[in-house]
Design a protein that fits this description.
Helix content of chain A: over 70%
Strand content of chain A: under 5%
Order of helices and strands of chain A: HHH
Distance between the termini of chain A: 53 Å
Largest sheet of chain A: none
Mean pLDDT of chain A: 87
Helix content of chain B: over 70%
Number of helices of chain B: 24
Strand order of the largest sheet of chain B: 1-2
Largest sheet of chain B: 2 strands, antiparallel
Largest interface: A-C, 69 and 86 residues
Structural class of chain A: mainly alpha
Low-confidence stretches of chain B: 454-462
Radius of gyration of chain A: 17 Å
Number of helices of chain A: 3
Low-confidence stretches of chain A: none
Shape of chain B: globular
Oligomer: heterotrimer
Structural class of chain B: mainly alpha
Distance between the termini of chain B: 101 Å
Number of strands of chain B: 4
Shape of chain A: elongated
Order of helices and strands of chain B: HHEEHHHHHHHHHHHHHHHHEEHHHHHH
Radius of gyration of chain B: 31 Å
C-alpha cells in the first residue's frame, strides 16, 4: 500500500480539526480540535520518517507531543480561569476585543 | 568728526529707556515718567554734542558713516549696522530729540491722571529710538527696521486707550494702511537688490545715475508708495484723521512733527535715485499737490480740533512732498518746511491738548469760543503757531512755505503754473481753516456753559451743553508750548538768514542751481500774502464776528463731503475692502466647496472604510480564527501555484 | 507495507475520520472527548504499524492517558452536563467554517496528491537497534539542547497551570467559632442549626430528588438539595406514595392473602 494514504488521512484529520475550531463554541471542544490538528501533523511526521528512513521525523513528533502537553496545561488553566470569572466556557462570550 | 562713534547711542539711549520701563513694569510707575524724560533729554544732549562737532568741521567732512557691526552677511548681500551721520540726519535728530523731549515733558503733566503713564513713556521712548534709527540708518534695510519700529510705536500709542473700541480700531487702521506702504518699501528694496546688488545708501545712491530710467521709475514709485503710507498722502491718507484717537502728545510728536514726515525724509534721502526718474518725480509732485488740496479742503470742514489739525498736517506734508517732487530745487525747502512745521504744528497740537485739558477732553470746536481770556498762555502760543503756519512774515512758516511756493513756480511748460497755483491756493485755504480753528476756539462768544455765568445746575446748562470751568494748564504743559512757540517765531528767520539751512544741507541734497520762477518773486510773495489775509479775514468774519452755531449747519455738497473726509473711507471700502471681501468670500466658498469637500470626502471615505472594516472586528475568536485560516489557505494556494507551476 | 498493514489502515482510517467528524456534530463535550480519544488510540496503533512503537506508546500514555484525562477533569469542573447547542450564533460562521475546512482539506489533499515522493525507504535499518534506542540516540545527541529547553517549557507550563488556577483568598479564613456564631446569628431569619434532613428513602426509590417525610408523614421540602428544587427536578412525595400504594395493592391482588406476612417480614 502507498504510504501517501497516511498523508491523506493526516490531511483530512487536520482539516476536520480546523473546522472544529471554527464551528464549535465550547472552548474545551475547540481545544480538542487543536489537539486533533497537532496529532494529524504528528501522523504526517511519522509517515515522513518512514518514507525517508530517517528517525528524526519521529523525534520531531515527540517534541510536538511534549509542547502540546505543555500547551494543554496552560490552555486548560486559562479555560478554567475564564470559566470561574464568567461562568461560561463559550468562546463567543469572550468577545471583549470587540470594537 | 570725532563724535561719530556717539551715533549708536542716539538710538540706544531711548531704547534702553523703553526696555527698562517695559521690563521693570509696574514697579517703575512712580519714577518711570521722569526716567522717560531723562532718556529723551539725554538723547538730545548726545545729538547736540554731535551737532556742535559737525558745525566745527568743513562742509565736505560733515558726512560720515559709523559702522557698529556687520548685520547681515549672506552671499553677495552684506548689510552693516551702520549709522549715517550727515547734516540731513542730524537735522532730524535735533528735531526729533528736541521736540520729543519737550513733548515728554508735556506728557508728564498731561498724562498725570493716567494709570498707565509709565507704559506711555515706554512707548514714547520706543518711538524716539525707532525714529532715530530710521533717520540714522545707513541702508534702506536698517531704515526699514526703524520704519517698522515707528509704525509699531504709532500703533501702540494710537490705541493707547484701547479699552475704548474706536481707539483700538483706529490703531489697527493706521497699522494696516501703513503695511500697504511698507510693501512698497520692501518691493523697492528688492528692486535695489536686483539692480544695484545692495541696499545701503552708498551703493544705491552712489550708482543711481547709471541705472536705466524704467528701473529708477519703478523704484521711485515704490518709494513713493512707502512714503504715502507713512506720511498719509493720497491714496493712503485715511488713517491720519483716525489716528487722533491717541493721546494728544502722541498726535503732536508722531502724527504731526516727526513720524509722518518720514516719507519726506525717505524721498529726500533717495534724491539721487529720483533724479534718474523724472516721471516718478512728477508723480510725487502730483501726489503732494493733490494731498495739499485734499487736506486743506477737509480741514475747512472739521469741527474736531484735533482732526482739523490732522488735516492741516496732511496738507502741509503735501507741500513737502510737492517740494520733494520738484527735485534738488525743492529738497532743502521740503526739509526746511518739515523742520519749521515740526515746531509750529507740535506747538499747535500741544495747545489743542491744553484746550482739551481745560474743556474736559471735549474736542468739538463748536462748543469752544472765547477761551483766550481764560487760557492766555495757550492762546498766545497757539496764536504764534497759527501765524507761523499761515506764513505771515516774519514767522518761521513764511520762510519755509513761501520758498516752496516759489519753487513750485520754477520750471517749464504747464508744470510751474499748475503746481504754483495749487500751492498758492493751498496757502489761502490754509489761512482760512487755521484761522477758523483759532477763532472758533479762542474768539467769539462762549458756547459752553460756565458754572459762574449759567444759572444751570451742576450737570448741565439749559441747552444740554455740559458745564465747563476752563483753567490754564500747569507749567509743565505750558513750558513746552512756550518753547515751541519761540521756535515757531524765530526758527525760520534764523535758519533762513543767508540761506544758512540750504547750504547746511548741501552735502546731502547737492547744490541746486538757482532758477527764476515763471512769475517775479515779489508778485508771488504779494499774491500769497493777499490770499492769506483774505482767508484769515473771511474766517474772522464767519467765526469771530458772526455767531457760530453749536451744531453743524446745513451746507453745500462739498462741505458735507469734506466733513466726512471727502468720503475717503467710502472710497477705500468700495475700492479695496469690498473687492477684498468678495475675493475672500469666494476663496472661502471655493475652499469649502472644492478643497474641503475633497478632503472631507476622502476623510469620510476612509472613515466609512474603517467603519466597514470595524465590522470585521466582532470580538469573536472563531471569526478571527476563520480569517487566519482563510489567509493561510490563500498563502498555501499561492505558494502551491507559484512553486508547483515552476517545478512542473 | 504488508497486506496486514493495508487491512489495518483501511479498517482504522474510516473509523478515525468518522470519529473526528463526530467532533463537529456531537452535542456533549464528553462525547467529543470520547471521539478524540478514539482517534488518538487509532493514531497510536498507526504509529506502531509505521515502525514507531515508542511514539505509539507515548501517544497512548501522554495523549490518551494524561492530556485527555486532563480534558475530562476540566470538563467535570466546567460541568459535564452542559450540552452545547449546535445552532450557530454568528451569522454565516457555519458556512464560512465549512467552506474553509473543505478548502483546507482540498488544498492539503491537492498538495499531497501533486507532490512526488521518493520511494519509501522504511525504518528497518534505522530501527536496527530497536526503535526507542534509535530515537534516544538522535534525541540525546543532536537534539539534547532542544530536549532541555522543552523540559524547561514543561516546568514553566506546570507553574503556569498552578498560577492561573490559583484562587486568591480575599478575606481571612473563617474560624470554626466564627462560622458557628454566624449560624446562630442567622437563626432569627429561619435558618436552623442542625444539619438539613437527608432526602427520603422509599421502598422503590432512594434518590436525592425525593423529600423525606416528617413524623406526621408530611414531606420535608428542604430535605431535597436546593439546586434540584430550583431546577424543578424534585419529585413530589405524594406521587411516590400513591405509586407505591398502587404497587402494594397490585401485589396483594396477585398474591393470596397468606403471603402478606411474607412482605412484612
Amino acid at each position: 500500500m502507498e504510504l501517501v494514504n497516511y498523508l491523506y488521512l493526516a490531511s483530512i484529520l487536520f482539516a476536520l480539526g480546523a473546522t472544529t475550531v471554527l464551528l464549535r463554541r465550547n472552548a474545551i471542544v475547540v481545544f480538542m480540535g487543536v489537539e486533533l490538528m497537532l496529532n494529524a501533523t504528528n501522523l504526517a511526521l511519522v509517515t515522513f520518517a518512514r518514507m525517508h528512513g530517517d528517525i528524526t521525523g519521529q523525534v520531531l513528533a515527540f517534541f510536538v507531543m511534549v509542547v502540546a502537553a505543555a500547551e494543554v496545561v496552560v490552555g486548560l488553566a486559562i479555560i478554567v480561569t475564564i470559566f470561574r470569572a464568567r461562568r461560561s466556557a463559550s468562546v463567543d462570550d469572550v468577545n471583549l476585543l470587540k470594537s | 568728526m570725532q563724535t561719530l562713534s556717539l551715533a549708536p547711542w542716539l538710538v540706544a539711549t531711548p531704547l534702553i529707556g523703553a526696555a527698562l520701563l517695559l521690563l521693570v513694569g509696574r514697579r517703575s510707575d512712580r519714577w518711570g515718567h521722569w526716567f522717560g524724560v531723562l532718556a529723551s533729554t539725554a538723547t538730545f544732549v548726545i545729538g547736540l554734542v554731535i551737532l556742535l562737532d559737525m558745525l566745527g568741521v568743513d562742509a565736505a567732512e560733515r558726512v560720515g558713516v559709523h559702522t557698529t557691526a556687520s548685520w547681515i552677511d549672506v552671499g553677495p548681500l552684506s548689510v552693516d549696522l551702520g549709522f549715517q551721520v550727515d547734516p540731513l540726519s542730524m537735522t532730524f535728530v535735533m528735531l526729533i530729540s528736541f521736540v520729543g523731549s519737550l513733548i515728554h515733558l508735556y506728557s508728564v503733566a498731561y498724562m498725570s491722571h493716567d494709570r498707565d503713564r509709565r507704559r506711555f513713556f515706554a512707548y514714547l521712548n520706543l518711538f524716539v529710538a525707532a525714529m532715530l534709527l530710521l533717520v540714522l540708518a545707513d541702508s534702506y534695510l536698517l531704515l526699514f527696521v526703524g520704519w517698522e519700529g515707528v509704525g509699531l510705536a504709532s500703533y501702540l500709542l494710537i490705541g493707547f486707550w484701547d479699552h475704548h473700541l474706536p481707539n483700538a480700531v483706529a490703531g489697527k487702521k493706521a497699522f494696516v494702511m501703513n503695511r500697504v506702504g511698507d510693501m512698497g518699501l520692501i518691493a523697492a528694496m528688492m528692486f535695489m537688490l536686483a539692480t544695484f546688488g545692495g541696499v545701503d545708501f552708498l551703493t544705491v545712491l552712489g550708482t543711481a545715475g547709471a541705472v536705466d530710467e524704467g528701473t529708477a521709475t519703478a523704484i521711485g514709485l515704490l518709494l513713493l508708495l512707502a512714503a504715502c503710507g507713512k506720511s498719509a498722502q493720497l491714496p493712503l491718507q485715511a488713517w491720519l484723521g483716525d489716528a487722533m484717537a491717541g493721546p494728544t502728545p502722541v498726535s503732536a510728536l508722531i502724527h504731526a512733527a516727526t513720524m509722518v514726515t518720514a516719507g519726506v525724509y525717505l524721498l529726500v534721502r533717495s534724491g539721487p535715485l529720483l533724479e534718474a526718474a523724472p516721471d516718478a518725480q512728477l508723480v510725487i509732485a502730483v501726489v503732494g499737490a493733490l494731498t495739499l488740496l485734499f487736506g486743506a479742503i477737509v480741514g475747512c470742514a472739521k469741527d474736531d480740533i484735533k482732526k482739523a489739525l490732522a488735516a492741516s498736517t496732511m496738507s502741509q506734508i503735501g507741500y513737502m512732498m510737492l517740494a520733494a517732487g520738484l527735485g534738488p530745487v525743492g529738497y532743502a525747502f521740503a526739509i526746511f518746511h518739515l523742520l519749521t512745521h515740526g515746531f509750529f504744528k507740535a506747538g499747535l497740537f500741544l495747545g489743542a491738548g491744553s484746550v482739551m485739558h481745560a474743556m474736559d477732553d471735549d474736542v468739538n470746536m463748536r462748543r469752544f469760543g472765547g477761551l483766550a481770556r481764560l487760557l492766555p498762555v495757550t492762546a498766545i502760543t497757539m496764536g504764534l503757531g497759527w501765524l507761523a503756519i499761515l506764513g505771515v512774515p516774519p514767522f518761521s512758516g513764511f520762510y519755509s512755505k513761501d520758498k516752496i511756493i516759489e519753487a513750485a513756480f520754477v520750471g517749464e511748460g504747464w508744470r510751474p503754473w499748475v503746481f504754483g497755483i495749487v500751492a498758492l491756493v493751498g496757502a489761502g485755504i490754509t489761512a482760512y481753516y487755521m484761522s477758523r480753528l483759532f477763532f472758533m476756539t479762542f474768539m467769539g462768544r462762549r458756547r459752553w456753559a460756565s458754572e459762574l455765568a449759567g444759572g444751570a445746575g451742576r450737570d448741565g446748562a439749559a441747552d444740554g451743553t455740559p458745564v465747563r470751568h476752563p483753567h490754564e494748564s500747569p507749567w509743565l504743559m505750558t513750558l513746552p508750548m512756550v518753547v515751541l512757540a519761540i521756535g515757531s517765531v524765530g526758527l525760520g528767520f534764523v535758519l533762513n538768514a543767508g540761506d544758512r539751512f540750504v547750504h547746511w544741507l548741501e552735502p546731502v541734497t547737492g547744490h541746486a542751481e538757482h532758477h527764476e520762477p515763471v512769475l517775479p518773486i515779489w508778485l508771488i510773495v504779494t499774491l500769497t500774502l493777499v490770499l492769506v489775509v483774505l482767508g484769515a479775514a473771511l474766517a474772522f468774519v464767519q467765526y469771530a464776528v458772526q455767531r457760530v452755531p453749536t451744531t453743524p449747519p446745513p451746507a453745500s455738497a462739498l462741505v458735507r463731503a469734506a466733513r466726512v473726509d471727502l468720503h475717503q473711507d467710502d472710497v477705500n471700502e468700495g475700492l479695496v475692502m469690498l473687492p477684498g471681501k468678495v475675493l475672500t468670500r469666494s476663496m472661502v466658498f471655493a475652499d469649502r466647496t472644492a478643497v474641503d469637500a475633497g478632503w472631507l470626502g476622502l476623510a469620510g471615505g476612509v472613515g466609512r472604510l474603517g467603519g466597514w472594516l470595524r465590522g470585521l472586528q466582532s470580538g469573536y475568536v472563531r471569526q478571527y480564527a476563520a480569517t487566519t485560516l482563510g489567509g493561510l489557505g490563500v498563502i498555501v494556494l499561492v505558494i502551491w501555484l507559484v512553486s508547483g507551476q515552476g517545478a512542473s | 507495507m504488508s497486506g496486514g498493514e493495508e487491512v489495518l489502515f483501511w479498517t482504522l482510517a474510516p473509523l478515525m475520520v468518522i470519529a473526528a467528524a463526530g467532533l463537529l456534530v456531537v452535542r456533549r463535550a464528553v462525547h467529543a472527548a470520547v471521539c478524540i480519544v478514539f482517534v488518538m488510540i487509532g493514531l497510536a496503533v498507526l504509529y506502531v504499524a509505521q515502525e514507531a512503537p515508542f511514539l505509539g506508546i507515548v501517544q497512548v500514555v501522554v495523549y490518551t492517558g494524561a492530556v485527555m484525562m486532563l480534558f475530562l477533569f476540566v470538563l467535570m469542573l466546567v460541568g459535564v452536563d452542559a450540552a452545547d447547542s449546535l445552532t450557530e450564533t454568528i451569522r454565516g460562521q457555519r458556512w464560512i467554517g465549512l467552506l474553509l475546512g473543505a478548502g483546507l482539506a482540498a488544498v492539503l489533499l491537492g498538495v499531497v496528491a501533486q507532490a512526488t515522493f521518493p520511494p519509501s525507504v522504511g525504518l528497518v535499518e534505522a530501527n536496527a537497534v530497536t526503535n526507542p534506542v534509535a530515537l534516544a540516540r538522535v534525541l540525546l545527541q543532536h537534539y539534547v539542547i532542544a530536549m532541555e529547553v522543552v523540559g524547561i517549557l514543561l516546568v514553566t507550563a506546570a507553574l503556569a497551570g498552578l498560577v492561573l488556577t490559583h484562587r486568591r483568598r480575599l478575606g481571612k479564613k473563617p474560624t470554626q467559632r466564627a462560622l458557628a456564631e454566624a449560624k446562630v446569628a442567622l437563626l432569627p431569619t429561619g435558618r436552623q442549626l442542625t444539619p438539613l434532613p437527608a432526602p427520603g428513602v422509599y421502598a422503590q426509590n432512594n434518590a436525592m430528588d425525593t423529600p423525606a417525610l416528617d413524623p406526621q408523614g408530611r414531606p420535608l421540602e428542604h430535605s431535597v438539595p436546593r439546586v434540584l428544587r430550583i431546577r424543578g427536578q424534585q419529585r413530589s412525595a405524594s406521587e411516590l406514595l400513591t405509586a407505591e400504594g398502587l404497587l402494594v395493592q397490585r401485589i396483594q391482588v396477585d398474591r393470596p392473602a397468606p403471603d402478606q406476612n411474607e412482605e412484612e417480614g
